[in-house]
Design goal:
Layout: E1 3-7, H1 11-23, E2 27-31, H2 34-43, E3 48-52, H3 60-70, E4 75-79, H4 82-91, E5 97-100, H5 105-128, E6 132-135, E7 138-141, E8 146-149, E9 152-154, H6 158-169, E10 175-176, H7 177-184, H8 194-207, E11 217-220, E12 224-227
Parallel strand pairs: 1-2, 1-3, 3-4, 4-5
Antiparallel strand pairs: 6-7, 7-8, 8-9, 10-12, 11-12
The protein binds calcium ion.
Length: 229
């Protein structure tokens, strides 16, 4: 049974959302305070989060940003203001969907199901392949989204992990920055190909012994990058 976290401070809306989701056999947890909600979202296992923006404790923008640094669970934003949705899109905070109040609860349920199915396909397709990539001293666990360098675990942001994993899964293939940007960053992200350079630099600082002479991610001048094996 899929477990859903609703962070919403208007009790009537939270209960409406919960009731509709429970009718569709979802297990639902409610949280009305933003910082408590984020804490639970990070510490417990949920399959999807429904997030209000204006919340006591911590607003939905901040929750979305902080959560995305750690987890890829789908997020549906439900906001009272259309402008907030434009804002969250513009900030590229990584929400998967947006609805404005008042909304149709059955449409919300339909979207929840669609996002869960999409996410399961994503996870499923990953687990069909090798779950652990090991190249010299570098070990990447794709399922747990963890990385070790010579036995020492390193912390990666979501995009750093996605970029490293993508390159390591396609070794010796040269990718341009444009290709990497379009593969790793979704269309809603702001930023440009310079973002790729910044992320490569951060990844190298974590995995390379000498960032001036990278042994994993090689710069092909004037073209892009490739993962050496
Ligand atoms: Ca609110």
């Amino acid at each position: 049974m899929s477990r859903i976290l609703i962070i919403e401070d208007e009790t009537s809306i939270a209960e409406l959302e919960r009731d509709y989701l429970e009718l569709s056999d979802f297990e639902v947890e409610l949280e009305e305070d933003g910082s408590r909600g984020l804490k639970r979202a990070l510490e417990e296992e949920f399959d999807l989060m429904i997030l209000d923006l204006m919340l006591p404790g911590m607003d939905g923008f901040e929750i979305c940003r902080k959560f995305r640094e750690m987890k890829n669970t789908p997020i549906i934003i439900i906001s009272a203001k259309k402008e907030d949705i434009d804002k969250i899109r513009g900030l590229g905070l990584g929400a998967d969907d947006y609805m404005t109040k008042p909304f149709s609860p059955s449409e919300m349920v339909a979207r929840v199901k669609a996002h869960l199915a999409r996410y399961e396909r994503l996870i499923g397709s990953g687990s069909m392949e090798n779950e652990v990539i090991e190249i010299r001293g570098l070990k990447i666990d794709k399922t747990a989204r963890r990385v070790w360098v010579n036995g020492e675990e390193k912390n990666f942001t979501t995009k750093e992990f996605d970029l490293l994993t993508f390159l390591a899964q396609n070794p010796n293939h040269v990718y341009t920055k444009e290709e990497l940007f379009s593969k790793i960053w979704d269309m809603e992200s702001i930023g440009d190909i310079a973002t790729v350079t910044v992320h490569i630099k951060k990844i190298r600082e974590k995995i390379e012994f000498n960032t001036a002479k990278p042994q994993y991610i090689e710069t092909i001048w004037g073209v892009g990058y490739r993962f050496k094996v």
